[in-house]
Amino acid sequence: QLQIVESGGTLVQPGGSLRLSCVVSGFSLDLYAIGWFRQAPGKERVGVSCLGVDGSRDGPIAHYADSVKGRFAISRDKAKNTVYLEMSNLKPEDTAVYYCARHIWTFCVSEFMEDEYDYWGQGTPVTVSS
Question: Where would you tag: which of 53, 69, 76, 109 has the fewest CB atoms within 10 A of its CB?
């Protein structure tokens, strides 16, 4: 059974930190790149970060949207079938539902085109507010 389950979203104060988890099953993280997307209320879903597979065309290369560079970090724990998104110095504009998705290739690109992702989790909401 192929599953992607995000967790860790909560209410956090501006300037705070949070770690989101993406637990996958039914496929190997050695074969597919993984991306994080987010959708703020009333706005389109946009790419946040993605991470390629070790040994892929580009190697384990991470990409980040300009809006989160220097604040977010994506990582992978293969033993736990989990991809993480570490978020720091959170801002109110980071408020969104965060989605984890499987890329169709072993590598990913910074354009974050949704057509290149074939399976999505249900999302986990993050609210940054005082």
Answer: 69
